[in-house]
Amino acid sequence: MSDGTQVSPPAPVSEAPRGEDLLHNPAVNKGTAFTEEERNTLGLRGLLPARVCSQDEQVMRVMENYRTKPNDLEKYVYLTALHDRNETLFYRVVMEHLPEMMPIIYTPTVGEACQHYGHIYRRARGLFVSARDRGKIADVLRNWPVENVRLIVVTDGERILGLGDLGANGMGIPVGKLSLYTACAGVHPSCGLPIMLDVGTNNETLLDDLLYLGLGQKRLRGQAYDDLVEEFVMAVQEVFPRALIQFEDFGNVNAFRLLKKYRDRVCTFNDDVQGTAAVALAGLYSALRITGDRLIDQRILFAGAGEAGTGIADIVVSAMMDNGLSHSEAAGRCWFVDSKGLVVKSRDDLQEHKRPYAHEHEFCEALADAVRCVRPTALIGASGQPGIFDRDVVDAVASINDRPIIFALSNPTSKAECTAEQAYGWTDGRAIFASGSPFDPVTLGDRRLVPGQGNNAYIFPGVGLGVVLSGATRVTDEMFFAAARALADQVSTADLDQGSLYPPLSRIRHASQSIAVAVARMAHETGLATIEIPGDLESYVASQMYEPTYAASP
Fold first, then answer.
1. Could you confirm whether domain 54-266 is CATH 3.40.50.10380?
2. Residue 106 a catalytic site member
3. 106, 357, 502, 546: the active-site residue
4. What architecture (CATH level 2) is domain 274-455?
5. pLDDT tens digits, residue range 110-127?
6. What is the pTM of this model?
7. Closest listed residue to residue 290, CA positions, set 433, 391, 443, 417
8. For 398, which of 227, 338, 427, 455 could close a Cys bridge (C-beta 3.0–4.6 Å)?
9. Does the annotation count 285 as an active-site position?
């Protein structure tokens, strides 16, 4: 963010360390772009090659090296090193090449990076709060060098993307999310704090790995776990009282109850539940512009009844109620298949979060059979089970609908329920498709179909920006509802004509700006805002968005 009153950038170069220390401070380092005058006044003469380079030239050099890397993991490591060396240049590169960089700094490559975290580790980024810190978590938080923290992304590493329990290796997720806050919504990098809540891991492979960096113990459960999380949340209120806490990639056993426990106490949300829900709802709005149908007439079958699936259903129910249905009518249009089969009332093994969507119906074990029984207009995958939308399943949906809506939202790409090529190919191009990870365009005859990526990056950065700029004390479902509408409004007719349900990544900053405006406005309308915003909200939000340009020395 720019020099606004709510969020302050880091100290200018004149207050930064000198000489070699300056070159080792990524927040203020310019590398070869330090001017002749700066080299003289800041003790840099001789520590850099003679030529002064423009930032454009630095970007050119970075991209030349980046594109020689043999695989995506090596590209991730290279960008991480750049981030550790020159933060401004890192964000300039990412923002100028976002469609190319997004799959590297976040899904799907970040999943691979988390799997190998202990083996590719170079330098700590963020804070590691472990079970050993019980009773002194506030002191650990005070070790962070920045006081003006406004956004915290925290994980306990139990459900990293669709990869499962990666323990402390999951730190790559908060780091990646905060990079997207800056790249996609212009939140100043100094405002974000990634945190790993290391409570152990039940992943035996990691426990046997000599290079694993987390606690070598089984996961905390029960009261000990709850006490640690409670201390953490309260420590944040003490040390960073204006910070928004984003819970990320917690296991189902904890995610729902932690959200329920804290959402009305502190400023927090769970991106896997609420962010995923909002981006899926925006995709549904776009899909219905293609079909010409109404949301309240949809019958939706979800494959996967975890955080993402039930979160999407909850927001869809709210949207249907907003269009006139009762809660029971809206919930009756959302059906689930979990690992055991169709979620119906006769089952006695249902977790609490599944019960609102358990309907009176005969039990079906196979997904394809459930499709034929339920006859959905839309099939949404949030299962983490690769390939479960097989030919039989897709054929079943396509036989019911002229334009079947098929969302394969599981991340990373290796966990997708089906590919774009399969969805389009098996339906002769009739499918209206979206995915959680990126897929290449598909050519069918003379048609070129460009699948939209229903990535949470379209939602959470704008929501966070709106919360920060309004000083909202809570994050509500109404804010995510407004965010979904704002995102859907950014999809053009040209986007829809090529099959894209979301705007291209090249327009994501504009989309995030619109979402931030909608969220900030909602915060004011609901009495949750603590910061007065000028009348021209759009211009104000735009003025607060960070641009990665070097600060001039006095």
1. yes
2. yes
3. 106
4. 3-Layer(aba) Sandwich (3.40)
5. 999 999 999 999 999 999
6. 0.92
7. 433
8. 427
9. no
